[in-house]
From TrEMBL:
Coiled coil (residue ranges): none
Enzyme class: transferase
GO molecular function: DNA binding; DNA-directed RNA polymerase activity; zinc ion binding
EC number: 2.7.7.6
Similarity-based family: Belongs to the RNA polymerase beta' chain family.
Function: DNA-dependent RNA polymerase catalyzes the transcription of DNA into RNA using the four ribonucleoside triphosphates as substrates. DNA-dependent RNA polymerase (RNAP) catalyzes the transcription of DNA into RNA using the four ribonucleoside triphosphates as substrates. Forms the clamp head domain.
Record-annotated RNA polymerase N-terminal domain positions: 207-511
Catalytic function, reaction form: RNA(n) + a ribonucleoside 5'-triphosphate = RNA(n+1) + diphosphate
Annotated protein name in UniProt: DNA-directed RNA polymerase subunit
Gene behind the chain: rpoA1
Amino acid sequence: MVLEEKIVKEIKFGILSPDEIRRMSVTAIVTSELYDEDGRPIQGGLMDPRLGAIAPGQVCLTCGNDAKHCPGHFGHIELARPVIHVGFAKQIHDVLRATCRRCGRILLPENEIQRYLRLLERLEKRWPLLAKLLVTVVKKKAAKVTECPHCGERQYKVVLEKPYNFFEERPEGRVQMNPLEVRTRLERITNDDARLLGLDPEEARPEWMVLTVLPVPPIHVRPSIVLETGIRAEDDLTHKLADIVRTNERLRELLESGAPQALIDEHWLLLQYHVATYIDNELPRIPVARHRGGRPLKGIAQRLKGKEGRFRGNLSGKRVDYSARTVISPDPNISINEVGVPVDIAKTLSVRVPVTPWNIEEMRRYVLNGPERWPGANYVITKDGRKIDLRYADRKRIAEMLEPGWYVERHLRDGDVVLFNRQPSLHRMSIMAHVVKVLPGKTFRLNLLVCPPYNADFDGDEMNLHVPRTEEAQAEARELMLVQYHILSPRYGGPIIGGLQDYISGAYLLTSKATLLSQEDVVDLLSAAGYRGEIPEPAILSPKKRWTGKQLVSLFLPKEFNFRGKARVAAGIFLCEDEWCWNDSFITIKKGELLTGVLDKKAIGAEQPRNMMHWLIKEYGTDYARFVYDNMFKMFIRFIEKRGFTMTVDDVALP
């Protein structure tokens, strides 16, 4: 069998016609009773077995599939009287205002209608947005006409009293239009006129916005649940549909028995209320439909809209496996590429590793450690795909049985790559790859330099961590998403990662020409920065050996690196035009030596384009930039920690 391949070009939305609802329905719903005395679903009821199979072992009477494969099937309710679809009330109002109350034509001269139709046809092909604008213009223009140019009928103002009541303001006073009158008026509209009112007559005739047949969703959409007490609890939609069927059958009986019009109107209004609250139970000016216990029922609209709704809650945002979420804490001692992961999370999350002749002994150690001891393993998967939970298995026997071709779900360990994300994810750098560093504690640890891309702070922010499952995903994360590859931001054209707060204060004070360091200070600062080379000659030899902060910074710069720029302090009386300025605010780096100037926010700060770090990355790549961020910046933090940065009451006292 050869399958023909086709490409989806467009999706068109429309309104279900009464005939289409009947065609896709497998049964008419005629009773509000759900189950008989034996607890079996009633034929023609809302839990009719023809609507789909959801219980294990049950076979669908419509498609013959079991609960796993049955897609569910629609039913329908034949309404005794039409009711307004509350979702289309505004569209109905617009159409009624623009069309004649007698002949149904648009309230514009025929030649004008034809001109607009030709224009609409041209616009729809090339400029769909302009076509929509034309429809709006036609509606507004027609709504102002007081006499029909086609039949001469005088037009009255149609008022919509939300959510679904329509009135006509006649000379004798305001008269309510019932849904049957509204539908009759909409039926008179021609297909050409409907097109000019923004409706495609093949997909959405105007009268279809007034319901005469109500589709009943499959049981899959509204499954019942059995409580611990054995009582069956029905879905909110089923409760509302039962109210609709009950009221509809009562209205039909009243119509057939020739009951007084007032009684018929009362039940008609009640049917309209039930259908409206079934669609949307948060409508203005009408009471909310509630359970007997007082809890508001969830209508179809409530299922879809809002934070907990289908789109935001289940489609845009999903719960996923192999992920973790907890509070973040600062840690200036880990690399910008790393994330500190609590041991408890490292033991819960796992990485699937294939057993090979080269790693079998390591995998055996993990299996013996089991889920409780880190680094261990949670599961073992055999060649035939059987998953063994190591919490309940004989770990010693499993370790002996281990052979190439099996898989071990081992704990997260140092060096694994993970994705780290902070919501709201507003740009590319809101999710980046980090390398795991397992640490004690209960919070994720993040280097402070990486806060700007995530817009993170440490006042209780939480972040998400995801473990890539396949080797391809891990390789992509490591090669494309690692933090160091996103230091340069397209937003600033410069580094988004960089010094802030204590880093800048430390760098400024350390590189100030007033700062002189003893040998003890130099060793302490260079040790904090992970420097393993030789200490340079002191800048001052007598009476005591003293080093400058500029000398220490120079140890971390490439020997061929040159840079000239002004520090942020270079303004006003501190303005420097060349490196010989006594204010020391003109930065000069020659052949890797910081000769003049102080490093401040403009030189090493985050979100500062064309600064020193920007040129280092451009000239020497992201690996060197990471080395500078991980080492030189630790020296700045250590210096401010040693020196202190205090304030007094005078600093905050008002003059």
